[in-house]
């Protein structure tokens, strides 16, 4: 166990150092995040003229929603899907198939290293900009539950993206599938609009899909109030449901991973 | 262009999915607008169809500018990083033209489908404009494509120095976000910025306003502004090209 953890730490550290060489790539978020947020500020400022609440959310809660969505995006950002598909298509996956470590562990370790770097270069500076410049309320109602929920969201985001990446073992060119899926994922996760704005029937479907656990649920946990499709949950119940969804998705990912390895053919394998 | 099309046809399912993605992707912002209006909120002074018209014009402009011009941003990004941009320098045609051709992307024509559907839907809810409004709109639409062309030049030009950074797409998406909504929702200062300094507002808001009869003929000055921006873009791109260090440094 200790050996495994040491390997994960080593991979994470190497990824951290590798990406530290491309700091400007991450620093672009200091411009992109606040600019996208500023658009939302103007949109909702106009929408809230003469209104106290829209769909049960006040103007301040709406800004907090988009602020938290942005931060969660930076914390959980993932490109395991793109990476895995590239490795499969180019044949480079063969080097991973021969290693005494499942590739998904390697990919997760890489994500840990990459996002640790992002904490300093993206998350913290953007958080400060939101609080100081836009005066957004970014203190969670229940900090402990919010941290657990964001960590679960981190895992959920990785596992869903990894499953998308695994489709490369069945499809010749999976780029199109990947992009369609990721767009639907963002819409269904509440990145563009809180899911409570969708029609009742759609909300019921979204409740049973895994995507709400990436963005919508942790954001509502952060705000301290969860409701979707008319179902109200306490913060503890919402995080419990999220943990269950993460466990189910993990099992699904492992099943897909095993099936994918059986399909894999490469030079010398 | 023919080679590009043949290349796409080799992976037909990928091509179809990419077009589908662009159609669905472009409809996300209008879907958000629709859902927000359904909840009883609205942009002051703008009906749902009028707000959607702004977004439709934006998507239509992208439907023309992206397949022809914006592909050069992606190809410059990858070719400069790999050092294969040298191949374009060796060809007996202007480098910018060759870069544009190599970036030709037929997938992006899908945006014309989503733009047209959205445009037709938006037009159903507004009074059909007269001939003069259509003429004014057509001229302003040319200006909006020219502005997008100049943006593609600025974005690909910066990649000669900021090698391999795909964040230029994020920067474009973030900044262009201002252009997808009625300009009147922004503060006066920002409205001026988006009209005179960074003319994002001229891409969709001004042409759509012309079609709605909210702009006078005076707005045609944007044609001159767009032409100046294209010239500036060309000069900038050629100056940045001199920074290209090739694979050998």
Topology:
The complex is a heterodimer of chains A (269) and B (249).
Chain A: H1 2-20, H2 23-27, H3 29-47, E1 53-54, E2 57-58, H4 59-76, H5 80-90, H6 93-97, H7 103-133, H8 143-166, H9 175-189, H10 200-208, H11 216-223, E3 226-228, E4 231-233, H12 235-263
Antiparallel strand pairs in A: 1-2, 3-4
Chain B: H1 2-10, H2 12-26, H3 28-38, H4 48-82, H5 86-90, H6 95-102, H7 110-124, H8 131-158, H9 167-176, H10 188-197, H11 205-211, H12 221-241
Helix pairs in contact in B: 2-7, 3-4, 4-6, 4-7, 4-8, 4-11, 8-11, 8-12
Describe what this molecule looks like in 3D.
Chain A is mainly α. Chain A has one domain. Helices cover 72% and strands 4% of the residues of chain A. Chain A is built from twelve helices and four strands. Chain A has a two-stranded antiparallel sheet. In chain A, strand 3 and strand 4 form a beta hairpin. In chain A, helix 8 packs antiparallel against helix 11. Chain A is globular. The two termini of chain A are 28 Å apart. The longest helix of chain B has 35 residues. The mean pLDDT of chain B is 89. Chain B is globular and about 60 Å long. Chain B has one domain. Chain B is 70% helix and 0% strand. In chain B, 41% of the residues are buried. By secondary structure, chain B is an all-alpha fold. Classes of the chains: A mainly alpha (269), B mainly alpha (249). Chains A and B meet through helix 3 and helix 9 of A and helix 2, helix 3 and helix 9 of B.
């Amino acid at each position: 166990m200790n050996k495994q953890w040491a390997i994960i730490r080593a991979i994470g550290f190497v990824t951290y150092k590798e990406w530290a060489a491309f700091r400007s790539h991450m620093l672009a978020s200091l411009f992109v995040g606040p600019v996208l947020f500023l658009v939302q500020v103007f949109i909702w400022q106009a929408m809230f003229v003469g209104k106290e609440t829209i769909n049960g959310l006040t103007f301040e809660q709406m800004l907090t929603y988009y602020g938290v969505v942005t931060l969660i995006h930076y914390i959980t950002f993932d490109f395991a899907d793109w990476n895995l598909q590239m490795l499969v298509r180019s044949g480079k996956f063969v080097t991973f198939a021969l290693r005494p470590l499942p590739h998904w562990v390697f990919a997760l370790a890489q994500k840990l290293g990459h996002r640790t770097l992002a904490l300093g270069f993206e998350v913290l500076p953007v958080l400060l900009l939101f609080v100081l410049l836009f005066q957004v309320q970014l203190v969670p109602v229940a900090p402990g539950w919010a941290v657990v929920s964001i960590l679960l969201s981190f895992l959920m985001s990785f596992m869903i993206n990894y499953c998308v990446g695994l489709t490369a073992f069945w499809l010749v060119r999976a780029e199109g599938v990947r992009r369609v899926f990721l767009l639907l994922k963002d819409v269904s996760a509440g990145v563009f609009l809180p899911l409570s704005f969708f029609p009742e029937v759609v909300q019921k479907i979204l409740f049973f899909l895994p995507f709400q656990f990436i963005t919508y649920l942790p954001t509502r946990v952060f705000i301290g109030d969860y409701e979707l499709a008319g179902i109200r949950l306490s913060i503890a119940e919402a995080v419990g449901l999220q943990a269950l969804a993460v466990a189910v998705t993990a099992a699904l990912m492992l099943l897909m991973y095993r099936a994918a390895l059986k399909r894999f053919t490469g030079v010398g394998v | 262009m023919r080679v590009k099309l043949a290349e796409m046809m080799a992976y037909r399912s990928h091509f179809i999915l990419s077009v589908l993605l662009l159609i669905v992707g472009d409809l996300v912002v209008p879907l958000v607008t629709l859902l927000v209006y359904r909840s009883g909120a609205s942009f002051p002074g703008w009906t749902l169809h009028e707000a959607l018209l702004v977004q439709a014009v934006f998507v239509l402009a992208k439907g023309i500018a992206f397949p022809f011009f914006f592909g050069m941003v992606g190809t410059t990004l990858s070719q400069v990083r790999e050092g294969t941009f040298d191949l374009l320098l060796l060809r007996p045609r202007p480098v910018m033209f060759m870069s544009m051709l190599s970036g030709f992307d037929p997938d992006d024509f899908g945006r014309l489908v989503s733009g047209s559907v959205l445009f037709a839907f938006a037009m159903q809810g507004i009074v059909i404009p007269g001939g003069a409004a259509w003429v004014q709109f057509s001229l302003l639409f040319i200006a909006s494509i020219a502005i997008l062309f100049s943006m593609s030049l600025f974005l690909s030009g910066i990649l000669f120095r900021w090698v391999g950074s795909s964040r230029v797409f994020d920067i474009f998406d973030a900044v262009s976000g201002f252009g997808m909504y009625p300009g009147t929702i922004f503060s006066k200062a920002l409205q001026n910025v988006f009209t005179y300094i960074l003319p994002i507002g001229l891409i969709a808001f001004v042409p759509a306003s012309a079609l709605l009869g909210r702009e006078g003929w005076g707005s045609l000055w944007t044609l001159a502004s767009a032409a100046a921006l294209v010239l500036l873009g060309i000069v900038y791109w050629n100056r940045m090209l001199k920074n290209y260090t090739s694979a050998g440094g």
